[in-house]
Amino acid sequence: MTYLTALWFAALQGITELFPVSSVAHAVLLPAVFPLRVDLEGLLPFTVMLHLGTALALLLFYWRDWWRYAWSLFDHTFHIERQVLIRLVVGTFPAAFIGFIFLKALRNHFTSAKSTAFFLIVNGLIMLLADRKREHVRAYSQTKASLTDAKETSEHAGDKRTSDREIAELGFLQSLLIGTAQSLALIPGFSRSGMTMVAGLFAGLSYAAAARFTFLLATPVILGAGVVEVPRLFKPEFQHLMAPSLVGGLAAGIAAYVSVWILTRYFHQHEVQAFLPFAIYCILVGSGVLLYLSFLT
Length: 297
Prior knowledge:
By secondary structure, the protein is mostly helical. The chain has 13 helices and no strands. It is globular and about 55 Å long. The two termini are 28 Å apart.
């Protein structure tokens, strides 16, 4: 693997892992459409490094928040932070459990490019449905509030403290269901961040709070998935790939940090139809690949 190839794959993974467009779908569909010769077994250390780079980028971006959540265990004045931490623990459990038990079975069953393209389309349609849900909820809320209150709510919708209060008000069952939504990403074509945010919207969160909860939930899951594979990096047959893998991990981390910075601001600024561009992208790419594979190959 050349360093240029490593940088290209790393940038793609760092972006698509957090944007609601499914990184696994891109990893499956690109080789199916373009003549890429990829040795998946040889890419093992590279893939592990990409996930570690992404997880470390999330930790770096949210380190102050994780520090406050951890400190809330010792300082009871951090009530909201402690409630958020509890919901993060509850939400992390189903993805970790389901991933550990069913990862290989699901990935082996849904590995074809056609099924991946189909589920990418479904991913986009679900996001459109979530946009409609959010639009109806917001319209109903504004009819009950005065114009001043609605304006004030809109101005402060992206505040971290406001988002944490929303998350802290989630019930344990809601947190569990949002965490379970992450598990759909085990099926190539479904986006981890997309499905988690959709579940957050249906639980009553705003776009900003749903995005914040999603990225916080993703941190331990992605980090855990990477750390589990770390011992396999030291097999003799992978030694020649370690240098490109390290470069790829660094590049993926930078791409992920920029991605989460862009996405948090994007979802803070959009109160309706925030999923629309991502949904259209998923539907168009999925449909295009499905047509290509069905009629042109």
